Amino acid sequence: MDEDTKLCNSTDERRKIGKVTPRERDEISALFERKNGLTELIKALVEADDEALKNNYFYEKIVADLGKTTTRHQRWWDRCAKQYQWERVDGHIWEIDFETCNIFLRKL
Amino acid sequence: MYQYLLVILEKGAVPFCHYSNPFYYSAAEPEFMPVEVLEKIIGYARENGLFLNFLLGRHPLPSEYENLIGTIGHVKMIPMALKDRYPDGVLVLEADENLRFSDLEAKSERNLILLVTPTDLPHLSDIVVSLWGKFKRLNLHLVGVESFSSVQLDIYKSELKKIADSLGQLYRSGREIEMNVLSDRLLLNRMNNCDAGIKHLTIAPDGNGYICPAFYYDNEADTLGYWSDIVETTPANHQLLDLGCAPICSRCDAFHCKRCVYLNKKTTLEVNVPSREQCLTAHAEREVSRLLLQSLRTVKPFDQFPAIACLTYDDPFDLIIGETWKREDPAAVSATSQDADDYLLQIYEMQKKILRKLDMD
What we know:
By secondary structure, chain A is α+β, with helices and mostly antiparallel strands. Chain A contains three helices and four strands.
């Protein structure tokens, strides 16, 4: 099952299947923001197409941080899904509404 | 001694107050409270004349449990999914499932609980009005009230006013329904709070006792002890749950307020100190109740109800830090000329009745 953490306003084909605590919501929200920020940074570096920039220490740090953040992000979903026994359906993803702490199952 | 017990029959039981229960949505098979534990609780309640409230999840109870709890007076708190299975249960509705409220048949004797989150606030009046005719009493609980912004509070206040207008029309047409946040204050002349840990004790599925279900779902380690060990004892610092030990609440006249000790603990780390958000919300409700009563001055039986004073503050904490508090009744300190008019009107109406009665005699 794929997971995603997009804040989604559309209600099409999604169903509420869970809820997390505000504390858990804050954890995933911070990881989500960090992941997005690092991805944007990498994109900017790639688009700059500067070999010197791409090979420097700074670039390596971002890549390493993005890897760690992605792993923590995935662990959060695994942990919460296991703890609260969320419904899994093939061809669907989980997503969270950061405002309400609700977890939805959305058809891909 | 407690007056009633709240028994959580499974961890995924429906949340029915200011707290959330992430386990409620679990897709796993429910793990019910062991039947022998339930049997002992029911036996104890029967011997001691305690009423029982059972909290159910989305799954119907096995017949063994149904038979057992059928032997004693009780109330079942149930989610929408079980409304047909237990038609006498107190239904707990989530405002965000309001599209399904049309499935509820008209039933004027039913009690409903409506859980409202900040995102539901802009549609609150529409949601509540859609439930008219489907209940005798509606208990509205705000989930996340502890983090209400001033904008959200304003929205809540304006939605309450719309609901009060509609409720006023129902009262004028002779309908007798109740809504905790608007009608309770009209009838109360002293605090009528939740009194968790004083009037009632919560028993979790594993048999451990808690002040209320919110303490259990927030942190299972917050237990007072195993239910049978604590049900007749007084927990440490028990007096802090009492109104007399709440310095802000004991000066307040938002008598309908839940005075939620769980939210107190969560927001101020003290069970006897409320957060500003709770006080502002309770006073918004109190103010709309006051305006509702004022608009019903000529309607029976509301003409007999004492007027609710207009206040100059919206958080009783201001009474303690401000100059307005002069050790008198806070309501008396800040009564306005409008209230004085109300009192005079009441005296005048009362005198007319007395004179009429004397004439008849």
